[in-house]
Write a structure and sequence with these properties.
3-stranded antiparallel sheet, 3 helices, 73 residues, Arc Repressor Mutant, subunit A, alpha+beta
C-alpha cells in the first residue's frame, strides 16, 4: 500500500495537531501552500513536513529567563 501524499484541510489539521480554521488562515497568509483542484483544497505532505521542520528552530531556542538577581537561568 502506498502512503498518501495529499491531505485535505481537515486531514492536514489532524496531522499537524491544529484546527482546520488555523490551516485555512495559514493558507490565506501564504504560510502554507495549497493545491486547488476544482473546489478541493489539498496540501502536500512533504511541504507540511518541511513547514514543521522550519518551525523547530524557534522552539529549540526558548528565550532565557532572568532571575531576580539579574542572571540568566
Amino acid at each position: 500500500m502506498t502512503e498518501r501524499r495529499l491531505f485535505s484541510i481537515e486531514e492536514a489539521a489532524v496531522y499537524l495537531g491544529l484546527s482546520p480554521r488555523s490551516i485555512r488562515t495559514f493558507i490565506s497568509a501564504s504560510r502554507l501552500q495549497a493545491i486547488r483542484l476544482g473546489r478541493r483544497v489539498l496540501l502536500d505532505k512533504e511541504q507540511l513536513d518541511a513547514w514543521i521542520a522550519s518551525q523547530e528552530p524557534a522552539a529549540a531556542n526558548p528565550p532565557r529567563i532572568q532571575s531576580a538577581t539579574g542572571r540568566a537561568e
